[in-house]
Amino acid sequence: MNAIPTYAAQSPEAGLRAALNAERPDIISAISASGLKGRGGAGFPTAVKWNFAAAAQAARKFVICNADEGEPGTFKDRVILMEHPDLVFEGMTIAGKAIGAREGILFLRGEYAYLRGGLEAALARRRERGLLGRGILGGPLEFDIRIFMGAGAYICGEETALIECLEGFRGEPRNRPPFPVNTGYLGFPSVVNNVETLAWAACILANGAAWFRAFGTEASTGRKIFSVSGDCRRPGVYEFPLGLTVAQLLAEVGGEDAKAVQIGGAAGQCVPAREFGRTIAFEDIPTGGSVIVFGPRRDMLEVLRNFLEFFVDESCGQCTPCRVGNPKLLEGVRMLQAGTCSMAYLKELCALGETLQLASKCGLGQSSPNAFLSVVAHFREEIMGRTVSHV
Description:
By secondary structure, the chain is α/β, with parallel strands linked by helices. Helix content is 44%, strand content 14%. The strands form three sheets. The protein has a five-stranded mixed beta sheet with strand order 6-5-9-7-8. It has a four-stranded parallel beta sheet with strand order 3-2-1-4, with helices on both faces. Strands 10-11 form a two-stranded parallel sheet.
């Protein structure tokens, strides 16, 4: 793994001490001025989410850290939790003060059970040092954090499915509105943020909004942690400013001869070599951090089959478009591999994929056709060689 230099350079508790000396609105204003957007992939402005929860009137509020890192090709949150857990817990505590919450929950992916011991030890150390619990650092702030283990369901990466799981129910997305910032865990206002988002929030309070805005683009401020895997010489976890091109990233990781790059995991976009000049940013190619490099010998239909088998297995089955549509797309890929799919049927499958994007209830179904549609669009010659001309 490669170093994450910004996180490693942070002074312990600097962000928390700055937050303790600030008023709640000033904390949210600092996050707003930084331009921080959710690092889990959706890119929703963090300050807007915190402000909604802060304005809600309720007896209890919650800060929930989404550590259900289930997107294929994503492993940067695991590294952050292993190497910089205090920065994440510090960010949760800052969010707690900002919205008026006294309770925090780390929702940890079931497959990351081996991390729990170290995280519990980090929480215990923070309580001993007066960084959690009542009277944090001798002041009036009260906030504590507990860990909840997920059960390995990809769908629980969606914030309302995560909350359902926290409440002891099957992890299925809720209808929205209401939104978690108003009606979340146990019916109380809840902020759900990604691991990396909370760690950056602590860095921003420590160093200031201008420091964060000095990197990235106007619409995509700051730096970002990337999980890089696949056909490259130097896979690992990297920190880059948002706004770098795909080609620049590939040069850093040793993947210059790539045929394509899947950005955003299985639910993201497949970018062909002719588009490597595009930028990785919310205004062009958004991502939660997963970058999978495909070398010149990769079979793109085999890539699609792998992705769609994953989505078919992980769909909660709650809505018809996702439950029925993904198996049909997978069936189509297998037909293409067997040379039994006509061009007419391929067009129907693309139309089905667009329907999934529009009609599915949550992000899983809305994004699961992305790879299929982008591969068909960018690798038509490779695919056409496997279709049959008759209807």
